[in-house]
Amino acid sequence: MKIKPGRLIRRWEVLVLSATLTACATNPVTGRRQLALVSESQEIQMGQQAAQEVRTSIGLVENPALQAYVQRIGAALAARSERPTLPWSFQVVDDATPNAFALPGGPIFVTRGLLALMDSEAELASVLGHEIGHVTARHSVSQISRAQLAQIGLVLGQVLVPQTQALGGVAESGVGLLFLKYGRDAERQADDLGFKYALTDGYDVREMADVFEALQRASADKQEQGRLPGWLATHPGEPERIQAVAERVAALTTPVPTRTGATEFLNSIDNLVYGENPRAGFFRGSTFYHPDLQFRIDFPQGWQTQNLPQAVVAGSPRQDGVMQLTLANGGAQAAAQQFLGQQGIQPLQTSRQNIQGLPAVVSYFQAQIQQGQIRGLAGFIEHAGRTYQVLSYAPAPSFGAYDQEFQRALGSFRRLTDPQILGMQPNRIDVVRLPQPMTLVEFNRRNPSVVPIEEIALLNQIENVGAQLPAGTLVKRVIGS
User: Fold this and answer.
1) Please, what sign has the CA dihedral across residues 88, 90, 95, 97?
2) What is the 3-state secondary structure (H, E, C) of 161-230?
């Protein structure tokens, strides 16, 4: 029996609608029915797994007292939320970018870069409350469910209308990007919830606006550093949010609490690492140094470089050549065999070599990917009990133009022996109590920082550096090693 295309599409729509109707749950915040293809147990499991990946790939700040402090503040807020029984956790990740993010089911992270911009516990509570709101309102569950529903429709469409199969890969690859960020309505709702949770816990909720203003100033002054996207890159940062705080405060029928917890907060971040930590590796020009792992490598001049949590990468100006340095498992020979033994990888020429006195295995290879054939040079170098994989590749027609640059970069890997670089330490926040009234200009003259006064003003949320600060005020500065 032949079925007309129109009937096929309608039956597909019915099947998708059926999947939608049978996968709804009550939203804990609104009390309304919500699309939910993910159960709470699945939500928790996904969040726990992702949280472990965050801890492994980005790393946590090694400060038990600070971690316990943030956990205590967050847990108190979450206990008053609509989902108090979730396995909530609140931790500080070791990244210089001002950011905070929530994972499904309860794990919430804030970066040390965002803590550095804050001035009070009330500000911290408003940010943690915002992220709690994403979890209580199940925003990530909605995203995941919509993505799954889109995939259901995609699969059904491919089964019922075979002509769409050729487009399946393109459509599927875009599903994740389409639902990557929360919508503005979700962000507004999270702001509302964060305000409510902080207010319920007795904080001065007017401080919420100070966070937004500090983030906007940091973005305008381009002070954001680190390896994660900034908070304003994943949250709308328009003045509307600051205005919304004032409107919420004006709508209160009871006096605004005055609890800020400024002293407790500033004492908790005293001696916190500020900015990029050179112990985790850094670039000077095109040369990458890693004091802790004691190696250096020269990437091609003029290439765009980045030090990511689990890799150091470089891209050619024409964006058709890539280099990537990572750690590999086992010795050089075992790591080479594991890489070259992958399906789709074809070794072309493999040899044992000595690179700057270090044992290594080097191999040319080629591989077929969706975009075409690539050629590459893979080096596996043993140093100080670890094996480093230096992977360089380009489209096959372009590889010859980069071959010598790839070889020079690989051959530059060596032990780091410069005592000055080996001994480099990060900058840190130093909290000072003013012994008498003074301006920030006078404070900076008496207590010099390793960063400009404009940056000190930003860290202390001070707009007028000539304004008098009362005696006893706690002021942040940045000191070197």
Assistant:
1) positive
2) CHHHHHHHHHHHHHHHHHCCCCCHHHHHHHHHHHHHHHHHCCECCCHHHHHHHHHHHHHHCCCCCCCCCC
Question: What is the pTM for the complete model shown?
Answer: 0.78
CATH placement of domain 278-420: 3.40.1000.10
Give residue-wise pLDDT tens across range 393-409.
999 999 999 999 999 99
| Contacts with 281 (C-beta within 8 Å, 6 or more apart), sequence order | 288, 289, 290, 291, 292, 293, 307, 312
Q: What is the CA 463 to chain-centroid distance, rounded?
A: 28
Look up the CATH number of domain 427-479. 3.10.350
pLDDT at 339: 95
CA dist 172 to 36, 43, 154, 175, 225, Å?
A: 20, 22, 8, 5, 33
The share of the chain scoring above pLDDT 90, in percent, equals 66
**Sole residue written with tokens 């029915």:** 33
More confident residue, 376 or 24: 376
| DSSP label at residue 84 | T
pLDDT exceeds 60 at position 384: yes
Residue 57 has pLDDT above 70, yes or no: yes
Q: How far is CA 128 from the centre of its chain?
A: 16
Helix axes 121-136, 64-79, angle to 10 degrees: 60
Q: In what order do the strands lie in the sheet with 414-415?
A: 282-284, 287-290, 295-298, 414-415
CA distances from 420 to 134, 295, 423 (A): 45, 14, 5
Lowest mean pLDDT among 30-44, 83-97, 243-257, 426-440: 30-44
Q: Where are the domains of the chain?
A: 40-140+182-273, 278-420, 427-479
Cα distance between residue 153 and residue 464, in whole Å:
57
- pLDDT class for 34, splitting at 50, 70, 90? low
Joined tokens for residue 145: 């469910």
88 contacts 75 by C-beta, under 8 angstroms: yes
